[in-house]
Amino acid sequence: MSAIPELERLRASIDNMDAILLHTLAERFKLTQQVGVLKAEHDLPPADKAREARQIERLRQLSVESGLDPAFAEKFLNFIVAEVIRHHEKIREGQE
Ligand SMILES: C=C(O[C@@H]1C=C(C(=O)O)C=C[C@H]1O)C(=O)O
Fold it and tell me: Which residues belong to any copy of the Chorismate mutase domain (predicted)?
């Protein structure tokens, strides 16, 4: 039996999941952009390390519960947050 139909079925679901991830990320960035504007208006610093530490702790816990590598979850969050902070700095400088 050919593996192709099963491979195509799995890849179609993977494509759907990728779309969900991307749309979810886009909605998250809409929210963080609003936080960036609020911070710039009130002269608050772009990064909040205490908040990030709480998010990492929470996501590490959720990862264990859902069978995901907690180290990966932490790296993934850090990657996204770094991009968010880059945007916040730009908003602060009036470039966004
Ligand atoms: C969005 C915020 O700004 C930064 C980005 C965060 C994020 O992307 O979740 C979290 C903390 C901050 O370093 C915030 O302070 O809530």
Answer: 1-92
